[in-house]
Amino acid sequence: MATEPRRVPRLDTIYFYVTGSCNLRCRHCWIDPVTESHRSTLHLPWRELKPVFEGAKALGLRSVKLTGGEPFLHPDILEILADLPAMGLGVRMETNGTLIGEREAKALKAANVNFSISLDGPTPEIHDDLRNVPGSFEKTLKGMAACRAEGLRFQVICSLYRRNAELLPGMAAFAESHGATSLKVNVITSMGRSDEMREHGELLSLPEVLEVRSRMPVPENGFRIFFDLPPALLPLRDIVRNGVGTCGILGILGILHNGHAGLCGVGEHIPELDFGDLRRVSIKEVWETHPTLVTLREKVPAGLQGICGRCIFRNACLGKCVANTFHAIGELYGAFGTCTEAEELGLFPEKYVVEHRNVVA
Amino acid sequence: MSKLKLNPDLVFREDNDGGLIFDPATGDVQVLNETAAFICSLLDGTRTAEEIVAEVLEEFEVEDPAAAKADATQFIEGLRTRSMAVEA
Question: How far is B11 from chain A (nearest CA, A)?
């Protein structure tokens, strides 16, 4: 009997790793870009990649997240910011903010970009320590000021590690005072450069992370705080307020600075997750037929393993970050490390352990 | 009026801040705010929809009781329409 072909989902979002360069040297970066101060050399001209995005529209593409490296190092970034909305695409961006002046802020405004700026503490001692370039704190605050001058609001992303743990609850008010409407807390995990931070005891244990989260304020003025933990480890109050916060990996494709497709951005470092050069193979072929993506669609979420396969949030959380899991254990659909650790430590809430009926072996 | 209970095929979890309804057949989970979770906690087969709405109005301080009553009634009706709440 013939089997019905599995439905290919919409390619909803492209994560575009615009450049392989960054003007900072962040000690926790999982992408590990080359440090360049003014202009990227690790990128492709936009004209070479623009047809790829046009091709992706036929696959359902609705939005593009610009990240890097530092996107503003790409010499064509203003053209990219003009072209994507003109193609009918929503644009998001992750930036360190240090290169945002009046011209860049106007471009963000014209393109209606939903963007976030990284800031790891309320003092240069903390921020520059992690970003590893003296003066980056002041430059980031100047970038935020340029955004405020254009009436732009943004999200602040703060990476949690031992040195800023005590100050983190105060970061919401600090970020808001500089123009942010929300704060996202990313927990630094051992991936990329942060392996060295773990060796030096700079990363927090899971119980320490949960303790910091429990001290976060609950803003009553509309300001929002997103603590980037799996939903099962968040208080229900946060989920009611912010939603489950799924990654959406089944509708995402990464495009790396060299024009290769990849699962998120990890294709740069993990050959199995590099899906090939999009100047030579069509994005349609990659999206519809690449074996890794086909397997991913078969296994996630119904084939998720371990605690993820037994979690009440399985279908919403989708294993939290399959790229991180692949990096850790070499499997896309294994259990997410933080949740496995929580279960081993007796910190995974028993009430969220359930039996799913639709499972894939 | 018939008394209502949560569909026994579903799993309900709650705490002080809200609740979840989980469908083991599909894996879907619905997030409930505090009021919705309170309503679901009363779907135990001993109350009618009207009795549940009355308890909601007793439990929560509301500025507009008529609007709150309409919201609670609509939520319960929505559960019934989707077979998440059934007759006991």
Answer: 9
Three-state secondary-structure class, residue A102: helix
A156 alpha carbon, distance to own chain's centre: 13
Q: Find the helix or strand (DSSP H, E) in which A17 lies.
A: strand A13-17
DSSP string, A34-72: EE-SSS-SSS--HHHHHHHHHHHHTTT--EEEEESS-GG
Residue A355 Cα to chain centre, angstroms: 30
Tell me which chain B residue has its CA closest to the CA of residue A349: B13
- What is the DSSP secondary structure assignment for residue A311, as one 8-state letter? B
Three-state SS sequence of chain B? CCEEEECCCCEEEEECCEEEEECCCCCCEEEECHHHHHHHHCCEEEEEHHHHHHHHHHHCCCCCHHHHHHHHHHHHHHHHHCCCEEEC
**Contacts from B56-64 at CB under 8 Å and sequence distance 24+?**
B60/B35
Percent of chain A scoring above 90 in pLDDT: 78
pTM (predicted TM-score): 0.92
The answer to whether the CB atoms of A236 and B26 lie below 8 A apart is no
Contact A40, A21 (CB under 8 A): yes
State the ipTM, two decimals: 0.88
How many Cβ atoms sit within 10 Å of the Cβ of residue A354? 18
Count CB pairs under 8 A between chains A and B: 49
Q: Which of A181, A188, A144, A182 is nearest to A165 (CA)?
A: A188
> Cβ(A229)–Cβ(A209) under 8 Å?
yes
Rg (Cα) of chain A, in Å, rounded? 20
Within chain A, how many helices (H) and strands (E) appear?
A: 15, 12
Residues 6+ apart with CB under 8 A from A102: A146, A149, A150
Q: Which residue of B has its CA nearest to A358?
A: B25
> Rounded to 10 degrees, what is the CA torsion of B60, B64, B69, B72?
-60
What pLDDT score does A134 carry?
A: 93
**Rounded-to-integer distance, Cα A321 and Cα A296, Å:** 12
> In a 3-state reduction of DSSP, which class is residue A105?
helix
pLDDT value at residue A324? 87
CA distance B73 to chain A (A): 21
- For A357, which of B19, B25, B29 is closest by C-beta distance? B25
- Contact between residue A301 and residue A315 where contact means Cβ atoms under 8 Å apart: yes
Cβ of A354 within 8 Å of Cβ of B32? The answer is no
Q: Provide the CA B25 distance to its chain's centre, in angstroms.
A: 20
Over the stretch A149-190, which tens digit does the pLDDT of each residue have?
999 999 999 999 999 999 999 999 999 999 999 999 999 887
